[in-house]
Amino acid sequence: APLLIQVSTLSWSQPGGGEEYGATHELLATPPVFTLPSKADQIVRVALRREPDPARELAYRVLLAEVPAPPARDFTGLQVALRLSLPVFVKAGAPAAAALVWRAQWQSDGSLALAVTNGGHAHLQVNDFNLHFAGNSATAHSALSRYVLPGSTVTWMLTPPAGVAHEAAISVAGLSDQGEFRADVATAGP
Fold first, then answer.
1. Which of 166, 173, 177, 185 has its CB 3.0 to 4.6 Å from that of 102, i.e. a possible disulfide?
2. Which residues are CB-contacts of 117 (< 8 A; sequence separation ≥ 6)?
3. pLDDT in tens, 26-73
4. Which H helix or E strand runs over 39?
5. What pLDDT is recorded for position 102?
6. Is 121 helix (H, G, I), strand (E, B) or coil?
7. Separation of alpha carbons 73 and 41, rounded Å
8. What CA–CA distance (Å, rounded) separates 140 from 177?
9. Preceding amide of 15 cis, omega within 30
10. Is the separation of the CB atoms in 171 and 103 below 8 Å?
11. Which residues, other chains included, contact 4 with Cβ-Cβ below 8 Å and sequence gap of 6+?
12. Mind listing the pLDDT tens digit for each residue in 116-152?
């Protein structure tokens, strides 16, 4: 059946490690509302209404939300509406890159809070990583993909393998939207 889709643009930031979205007039998406016929395509054009930042990448989201049709009178089920949130990045005027610093904090329950801070001027999407512990062949793995925006800190809660000493040196190796990465992790106890 045809779908009625509403398009909106949002600013995107990560204060305190969370995701925050807000209304913005800096990004324009058109058409703002359209009907998508069955098995059809629709082009949505996105334009920046300001100059790019000279030093830092800008981050936005384009939200595509289905406006559900009223259910039929005899309908007795659950209606599910489509909602897609797509990232939009505007490159800085000057070359910019992410600069990640990793640190781990042992928790009193034995879990490990792994945080990464991006001190650079462009995002990085961490897709998959393993934590390696010195003196132990086991690893802690995460496949939870997260974006790390410039100036932001993102945290994963992990369960380390049994027998890992809290004093063990930790390193991280994984995949991002910009390729493979490896880094040492600064650690602190509970």
1. 185
2. 100, 101, 103, 148, 152, 153
3. 999 999 999 999 999 999 999 999 999 999 999 999 999 999 888 888
4. none
5. 97
6. coil
7. 30
8. 21
9. no
10. no
11. 33, 34, 35, 36, 66, 67, 69
12. 999 999 999 999 999 999 888 888 999 999 999 999 9
- Percent of residues, the chain, with pLDDT higher than 70: 99
Model confidence pLDDT, tens digit, residues 164-184? 888 889 999 999 999 999 999
DSSP H or E stretch at residue 108 = none
Per the listing, tokens 């981050």 go with 59
Strands 33-36 and 3-13 turn out to be antiparallel
pTM of the predicted protein model? 0.87
Is residue 190 classed exposed, middle or buried when 0-12, 13-18 and 19+ CB atoms within 10 A define those classes? Answer: exposed
Res. 190: pLDDT tops 80: no
CA distance 16 to 13: 10
Amino acid sitting at position 94: A
